[in-house]
């Protein structure tokens, strides 16, 4: 097999399908059991590898969520699940949603993982942003001048820039965050729309965009990823979006 260095990690560029099967059965038997009946979980990432390991997050720096809201959610979710859910590795039940963040991969967390599933919310940031718009419109319609006065010096309609003291909080944003917390469950996703976050020390990503590079005994397989999934006996009763 050929190895390349990518962002200080070893990336497998082409690999024997039997090596992947052996690795997943050894390290990821728990998620393989779920994948026998559940739909795949997708993660978008900028990579050039086919199958490779990644290290889980210890503390995540949120890109689109203000730090106070990230910490607010984590505090509530810590009470509910016993771990900081928003610091987990984020994946989607939807191929299309994952593709917005890069090449689409299927995730395989190593044994001993925990998860939290955000039910019926495809993207938390968009969900909150939409509710911020409703808060803004309701308050503006009720008293335009009063709302304009409250919002002096604050960002309008941008969750990423909402400050701790923002009028959005007093107008109902905290209740929206509480609704997000209520939507989280540790039950299986069953193919429904939603985001799943994993608490895992390590996970593997399988690049669906390079599925034709899988090999068996040094020869490219004709069915690529479908052949791999059949040999692992996963996703045999559910639809899998490859590209």
Supply the number of structural domains.
2
* Element string (H = helix, E = strand): EEHHEEHEHEEHHHEEEEEH
Low-confidence stretches: 1-14
User: What level of helicity do the residues show?
Assistant: 25-40%
Q: How confident is the prediction overall: mean pLDDT?
A: 87
Between the first and last Cα atoms, what is the distance in angstroms? Answer: 24 Å
Q: Using only CA atoms, what is the Rg?
A: 21 Å
Largest sheet: 4 strands, antiparallel
Number of strands: 12
Strand order of the largest sheet: 3-6-10-4
Percent of residues in β-strands: 15-25%
Globular, elongated, flat, extended or rod-shaped: what is the shape? Answer: elongated
* Helix count, DSSP H or I runs of 4 or more residues: 8
Estimated structural class: alpha+beta
Give a concise summary.
The protein has helices at 17-27, 29-35, 67-81, 95-99, 124-142, 144-150, 167-183, 225-232, and strands at 2-6, 9-14, 42-45, 51-55, 89-92, 103-109, 114-119, 184-185, 194-199, 202-207, 215-216, 219-220. It has 243 residues and is α+β, with helices and mostly antiparallel strands.
């Amino acid at each position: 097999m050929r190895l390349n260095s990518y962002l200080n990690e070893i990336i497998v560029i082409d690999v024997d399908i039997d090596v992947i099967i052996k690795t997943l059965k050894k390290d990821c038997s728990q998620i393989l059991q779920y994948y026998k009946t559940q739909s795949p979980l997708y993660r978008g990432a900028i990579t050039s590898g086919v199958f490779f390991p990644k290290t889980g997050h210890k503390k995540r720096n949120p890109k689109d969520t203000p730090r106070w809201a990230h910490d607010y959610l984590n505090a509530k979710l810590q009470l509910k699940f016993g771990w900081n859910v928003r610091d987990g590795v984020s994946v989607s039940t939807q191929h299309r949603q994952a593709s917005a963040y890069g090449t689409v991969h299927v995730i395989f967390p190593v044994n001993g993982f925990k998860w939290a599933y955000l039910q019926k919310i495809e993207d938390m940031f968009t969900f909150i942003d939409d509710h911020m718009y409703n808060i803004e419109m309701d308050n503006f319609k009720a008293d335009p001048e009063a709302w304009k006065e409250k919002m002096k010096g604050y960002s309008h309609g941008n969750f990423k820039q909402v400050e701790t003291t923002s009028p959005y909080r007093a107008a109902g944003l905290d209740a929206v965050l509480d609704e997000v917390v209520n939507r989280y469950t540790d039950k299986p996703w069953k193919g429904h729309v939603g985001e799943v976050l994993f608490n895992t020390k390590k996970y593997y990503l399988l690049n669906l965009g390079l599925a034709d590079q899988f090999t068996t005994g040094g020869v490219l397989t004709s069915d690529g990823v479908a052949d791999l999934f059949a040999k692992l006996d996963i996703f045999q009763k559910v639809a899998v979006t490859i590209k």
